[in-house]
Design goal:
The chain is mainly α. The protein has a two-stranded antiparallel ribbon with strand order 1-2. The protein is elongated and about 80 Å long.
């Protein structure tokens, strides 16, 4: 028996946080979600999590941590999205899935079914030494010999040699071009192609 008239129990989500069964209410899912985010090994704010989720506005995620979200459980689909992103910051997906009401084997199964996080890309800026303008011109002349009219080869080669360093410098400052998803690319390649038409036979007039 508890000597204290307020009976103390253990929160079934993390096994540590106390809840009071008489006269007090357990923290809602939004409050616990915020606590999990703030405890991530790799610190991440609301805006960063929203960007990682692909949201164009931070409030689309922040709502679930705000006082406006008063539910005791997260929607299951949102919990899966948040769990996958939190894992990228070193979090335990099971903690987030528990906020959707999952426990035990369900947490383990759903955690294992989450998609693998995309590999983190690291960009590095390095100085590059270019050959001389004359060397670049000769290189482009060799390339253009079979591609351009003879009277334009010299002019085109010289223009390319002059513009190459500046063009590469501008390209390095631009955001990387997104790579097509492999499944999308395969689907595009699998589209039926138009069959080549056979040439029509000339009509014979008598």
């Amino acid at each position: 028996m508890y000597k204290n008239p307020v009976r103390r129990a253990t929160d079934n989500l993390d096994g540590q946080r106390p809840i009071f069964l008489h006269g007090a209410r357990m923290e809602n899912a939004g409050t616990r979600l915020k606590a999990i985010r703030e405890a991530l090994p790799k610190k991440a704010g609301v805006r960063e999590i929203a960007r990682a989720l692909g949201y164009d506005k931070s409030f689309k995620y922040g709502y679930y941590e705000s006082a406006g979200f008063k539910k005791d459980v997260l929607p299951f689909d949102k919990a899966k999205e948040f769990a996958a992103v939190f894992r990228q910051y070193g979090g335990d997906p099971a903690e987030v899935l528990a906020l959707a009401g999952l426990s035990g084997d369900d947490q383990v199964r759903e955690s294992a079914a989450l998609p693998d996080p995309a590999p983190q890309l690291i960009y590095a800026m390095m100085p590059v030494a270019f050959p001389s303008e004359e060397a670049l011109t000769r290189m482009f002349e060799t390339i253009l010999e079979k591609l351009a009219p003879p009277d334009l080869v010299d002019v085109l080669a010289q223009n390319l040699a002059l513009r190459l360093p500046t063009a590469l410098a501008q390209a390095s400052a631009s955001p990387p071009v997104p790579v097509r998803d492999a499944s999308t690319a395969d689907a595009a390649d699998a589209r039926p192609r138009a069959k080549p038409r056979q040439p029509r036979r000339p009509e014979q007039h008598t």
